[in-house]
Specification:
heterodimer, A: 298 residues, alpha/beta, Rossmann fold, Alpha-Beta Plaits, 2 domains, six-stranded mixed sheet, four-stranded antiparallel sheet, 11 helices, 14 strands, 36% helix, 30% strand, globular, B: 420 residues, mainly alpha, four-stranded mixed sheet, two-stranded antiparallel ribbon, 6 strands, 68% helix
């Protein structure tokens, strides 16, 4: 069995409102899967269903072959997964070492965590009170607590939010090392660069549905095109004509044009009277912008 | 390590390292014990202050009978008597003296002029009439047993007695007692004054006591008010720690997302509850031991805990943690569940007799106290710590155990261990 997570036609309703509206996707073992989407898209509800802490209305969700809706299976799943929730918090009067030790104790057996603390640069802080740590350090303690029992699947819900760029890169390296050790990683993030850099597959959720699902490269190719051109027009009336010929997005006084091939790029540059032009390679952010209609990082 | 022991370890450290919670769990009860012990110490001492103005004075000296009456009041050891000079206005005098005190409630007994003369004159008349009636009825009922000559002599004597009695008048000596209607201690003073007056009446007319009382203490040692408050305060604070501890801790952790994180681990609801209850039991036992030690050091109260004390504290913690879980589980809003816990906990403290004996309450409130769980917890601790009354221990612990099982059962059912 190569699938770590299989979700089929999953629905979660609150009255008439569908927080998760018939989504289906598969996460293979050993890959990094990112779920992206604006606030309220249904990402956290989906993750919580997979973590067996929230029930669902209909459909099917399996983690490592276990059915998340069955209590006995849920008990097995909880032994095999590690979780970092958004804004990780814990018993604030405990020391770093005690927090990680506590989570290790919940899984039975003896779990050494010195290496984990060292790899997250927490060794020197193990006797610091959790409450006295910075936001980034707290997040690292959360990550350590999530993997202390060597889980097969790690759910990381916005693991780098609030971290400085240096710490963020450390966490990226750590996630990559987890993948190299064969762990399956289910990630949500607000940082498109992070998702693009780390993910094997990406699902973009919007209003409870999966709006796009593929590898980052294919998503960019499908939605971003060959190049994107950011134009500041001399004559604003030209914008309407460009929008008829190409996919465009307006942003303040600029228009972003998605080009599918080099010939179209040449035509645009020759035929358009512009004040300023910038030609760029599309990114996942452009995909998100086109699929969801808003910029996640703003 | 079993998972509930992991929970105990972290929740106990979390509690112990928080100065505010340690203060409210352990130090605040000590402060209350100190206040209760000093403020209400006078109630248990059995003395009620009273001013007495003796106006029955001849040549500047109190008459022997009025002095004897005051002595008799003094010997009851219930009244703390201060004398007011006979020539002054008693009300103003007492008012001036009492105005220097924080609570200016006072009582005055006025013995009127002529107290001795009128009392003796009345006693003389009553004795003459009683003697005449006794002899007269004896003569008419038992004439066959009395020789005729003696009958004539007795009848002559009866005639003389009748003429004396006709000249003697039965007066009415009235003592005046002044008090504030809201002063509950005045009831005690009035009862003592009446009892002593009745004893005097009886003695003066030649009566003798048929019914007497003999005081025997229920306990090997005399008890003070702190003996009463100590188990009550321990019970009350173990209760509040139990109710608020689990409710507030869980609510706070839920609000900060900690419970959500724990839900995704193999930790079960039962592990979580057991670990937290164990923490509360340890806190309860620490509170009990600290309170007992403090009561001994400050008030010399000897309360020796035994196995039943530990059992009572453990069962009490389970019962009230269960109640806290019910509040936390049934009412989703943190503030509302906390307010509900307050609404239930504070009346329980006063209705249960933890602070004041329920015997002082009106009958309806006394009846209510039987339905208050804290009543049985306080009584169990009082039995095990102070009176060492095995019947009381078994009875109260039995009822408390049933209450604990019901509360914890509903509490386990009520507490959420999954998101909706």
């Amino acid at each position: 069995m190569d699938e770590a997570i299989v979700v089929g036609s999953l629905v979660k309703r609150y009255g008439s409102f569908a927080a998760v509206d018939g989504i289906s996707f598969t996460v293979n073992k050993g890959e990094i899967f990112s779920l992206l989407g604006p606030n309220g898209a249904g990402k956290t509800t989906t993750i919580e269903i997979l973590e067996c802490i929230r029930s669902y209305t209909s459909g099917d969700a399996r983690v490592l072959g276990y059915d998340v809706s069955k209590p006995r299976d849920a008990r097995e799943i909880k032994k095999l997964i590690g979780v970092l929730p958004q804004d990780f918090s814990t018993f604030e009067n405990l020391k770093v070492g005690e927090v990680v030790g506590f989570f290790a104790g919940l899984y039975g057996g003896k779990h050494e965590y010195d290496d984990i603390l060292q790899s997250l640069d927490l060794s020197n802080d193990r006797n610091k009170k959790f409450d006295d740590l910075s936001g980034g350090m707290k997040q690292k303690v959360g990550i350590a607590s999530a993997i202390v029992h060597e889980p097969e699947i790690v759910f990381l819900d916005e693991p780098t939010t609030g971290l400085d760029p240096g710490s963020r890169r450390e966490v990226w390296k750590f996630i990559t090392r987890l993948k190299e050790r064969g762990k399956t990683i289910f990630l949500t993030t607000h940082y498109m660069e992070e998702a693009q850099l780390l993910s094997d597959h990406i699902g973009i959720m919007n209003r409870g549905k999966i709006a796009a699902l593929d590898t980052p490269q294919r998503l960019i190719a499908q939605y971003g095109g060959c190049k994107k051109v950011e134009l500041k027009l001399k004559d604003e009336s030209l914008a309407a004509k460009i929008s008829q010929d190409f996919e465009t997005v307006r942003k303040n006084d600029k228009i972003t044009v998605y080009i599918k091939n080099t010939r179209d790029l040449n035509r645009l540059m020759v035929e358009t009277d512009y004040e300023d032009i910038e030609v760029m390679t599309p990114t996942l952010e452009d995909v998100f912008l086109k699929v969801v209609g808003i910029n996640l990082e703003e | 390590m079993m998972k509930f022991l992991s929970v105990f370890s972290v929740t106990f450290k979390q509690w112990f390292r928080s100065p505010a919670t340690v203060f409210f769990s352990i130090l605040f009860p000590l402060v209350l014990l100190l206040i209760f012990g000093f403020v209400f110490a006078g109630i248990g001492s059995g003395t009620t202050s009273i001013y007495i103005q003796n106006q029955d004075v001849v040549n500047g000296t109190s008459t022997p009978l009025s002095s004897a009456y005051i002595d008799a009041l003094n010997h009851t050891n219930v009244l703390d008597i201060s004398l007011i000079p006979s020539g002054v206005d008693a009300r103003s005098y007492a008012q001036n003296l009492s105005s220097n005190q924080f609570f200016s409630s006072y009582r005055i007994l006025i013995i009127p002029p002529g107290f001795q003369n009128e009392t003796l004159a009345s006693a003389y008349a009553i004795r003459l009439n009683t003697t005449y009636d006794t002899l007269n009825s004896t003569l008419s009922d038992f004439a066959q047993f009395i020789p005729p000559n003696d009958t004539a002599i007795i009848q002559a004597g009866l005639g003389a007695l009748k003429s004396y009695a006709a000249n003697a008048t039965v007066g009415n000596v009235t003592l005046t007692f002044l008090s504030d209607p809201s002063d509950t201690n005045a009831l005690i003073a009035r009862g003592i004054i009446n009892s002593v007056a009745m004893a005097f009446n009886s003695q003066l007319v030649g009566g003798s006591s048929v019914i007497n009382t003999q005081d025997q203490s229920l306990n090997a040692r005399s008890l003070t008010s702190v003996d009463y408050y100590l188990p009550g305060l321990i019970a009350a604070f173990v209760m509040t720690n139990g109710i608020f501890g689990l409710t507030n801790i869980t609510a706070d952790l839920r609000k900060r997302g900690v419970i959500r994180r724990l839900l995704s681990t193999p930790l079960t609801k039962l592990d979580w509850i057991l670990g937290n209850i164990l923490t509360q039991v340890v806190i309860g036992l620490m509170l009990t031991l600290v309170m007992i030690l403090f009561a001994f050091l400050v008030f010399r109260v000897v309360a020796i805990p035994d196995a039943f004390t530990l059992l009572a504290v453990a069962i009490g913690v389970v019962a009230f943690s269960g109640l806290g879980m019910i509040f936390g589980g049934l009412v989703k809003n943190v503030e509302t569940s906390s307010a509900l816990a307050n609404v239930v906990a504070f009346p329980m403290m006063f209705l249960s007799g933890s602070f004041f004996p329920t015997g002082l309450y009106p009958p309806i409130i006394q009846s209510i106290s039987y339905f208050i769980p804290l009543t049985y917890f306080s009584n169990a601790l009082r039995s095990t710590l102070i009176t060492k009354d095995m019947t009381g221990i078994v009875f109260n612990l039995g009822i408390l155990s049933v209450i604990a099982m019901v509360f914890i059962g509903i509490g386990v059912w009520a507490i959420r261990w999954k998101e909706n």
